Amino acid sequence: MVEFRPLNHTRVCIHIGLLELPFVTLTGAMDIVVAIGNDESFSQPSEKIERKSLKTTFLDSIGAHEIFSSEMWRAALAETVATTFFLFALTTCLLSCYESNVSDPKLLVPFVVFIIAFFFLFTMFPLTGAFLNPLLTFIATLKGAICLVRACVFFLGQCLASIMAIYLLKCAMSHDAVEKYMLGGCTIDNNGSGISLGTALMLEFVCTFIILLVAVTVAFDKKRSKELGATMVCIQIAASIAIAVYVSNVVTGRIGYAGAGLNPARCFASALLFGGPLWHGQWVFWLGPFLACIVYYIFSKTLPKEGLVNDGRYEIIKVARACIEATGSNNYKSATVKAEEKPPCIPETVDKDVLALYPF
Predict the structure, then answer these.
(1) Fewer CB under 10 Å: which end of the chain, C or N?
(2) Nearby residues of 184 by Cβ (< 8 Å), 6 or more positions away
(3) In 10 A of CB 133, how many CB atoms?
(4) Measured between alpha carbons, how far is 19 from 22 in angstroms, rounded to an integer?
């Protein structure tokens, strides 16, 4: 077996069994090793390198290096704190709307949701991405916006933030309000006066898909998000959340169920702290939104790569003119040509001198 090694000099060695005998040394740029006998050690380094490369590739693909990144842990801490106060402010304002003396408090809900969501998104978007929700974290992972390790850390932080937010609400609000609204509106069947599991599952899926289609399609498009700017992207996301909440509120209108949860961690925190009927159908708040994320991810692969281009080629007037020209008869065309060649006002038998008077 002959092995070539790049060195500053050339050394020829003879391997006999386990012995290595220097044979001759020359000046050159290649180290030539002549081996006699069975030497299985040559294949081992390549196998180790291959295994090491596969392991390194896998760790890089999941973003394992971010475990040792202080920036990732700072972002996770900021995401946890922001999610805590976002849910606290959002739930408090929603309950205030329902307790107001307005004839139809449901009309106030989308405006409140939009304002609160916009300010939190606008603040946290340049820092952490402003996910504030396990669903957005999940779809961001599917789309490749964040790595798997960061997504897991964010997910745990958002679940912890939901528990802290509901606990703060439990401590701050009266016992009657807690019993009436369960501080989350995640009661599917409130002693028979709620909604069915099938209806709740459909609302969770549909409303989550609305948010993903309207907001995520723009937010995860680098070209469009750059054209719109961070402000317009945050407005789009906040508006989609407000629309989804309002639609689910109008459809249901039942006590105990404040529309689509759109955040499984919030409903899980309510069930964890209060228990009882909140555990009934808890799987709906997880299956519906996560199923919507998977369906949207598959659907996003079919979206057109290029936007709509309007060059006026298919304008309706041009299409109508083309249809008229295409369906015109040959006689009409020949008559038109003859009319252009010879004006109809000139008689057939006219003198050449008189013809010269016509300005044609």
Answers:
(1) C
(2) 91, 166, 258, 261, 266, 267, 269, 270, 278
(3) 25
(4) 10
Local structure of 256: helix, strand or coil = coil
Name every residue whose Cβ is closer than 8 Å to that of residue 92 and which is 6 or more positions away in sequence: 169, 172, 173
pLDDT tens per residue, range 79-118: 999 999 999 998 888 888 877 777 777 788 889 999 999 9
Please calculate the CA angle 235-239-244 and round it to the nearest 5 degrees. 155
Sign of CA pseudo-dihedral 111, 112, 113, 119: positive
Cβ atoms of 137 and 154 closer than 8 Å: yes
* pLDDT for 297: 94
Tokens of 156: 């745990």
pLDDT, position 253: 58
* Integer Cα distance of 25 and 14 in angstroms: 12
The answer for 62, left when phi > 0, alpha when psi is -120 to 50, beta otherwise, is alpha
Distance (Å, rounded) from C-alpha 97 to C-alpha 102? 8
How far out from the chain centre does Cα 142 lie? Answer: 8
- Measured in degrees and rounded to the nearest 5, phi and psi for residue 60 equal -70, -35
Angle in degrees, 0-180, between the axes of helices 134-143 and 264-274, rounded to the nearest 10? 140
Sign of the dihedral defined by the CA atoms of residues 221, 227, 233, 236, in that order? negative
Q: Of the segments 7-16, 148-157, 213-222, which one has the largest average pLDDT value? A: 148-157
The sign of the dihedral angle between the CA atoms of 139, 140, 141, 143 is positive
Paired tokens of 293: 């994320």
**Residue 86: which residues within 8 A CB-CB, separation 6 or more?**
116, 117, 120, 132, 165
Find the angle CA(276)-CA(285)-CA(67) to the nearest 5 degrees.
110
Cα 29 to Cα 32, 42, 104, distances in angstroms: 10, 21, 87
Cβ neighbours for 315, distance < 8 A, ≥ 6 positions apart = none
Joined together, the tokens standing for residue 351 give: 């003198």
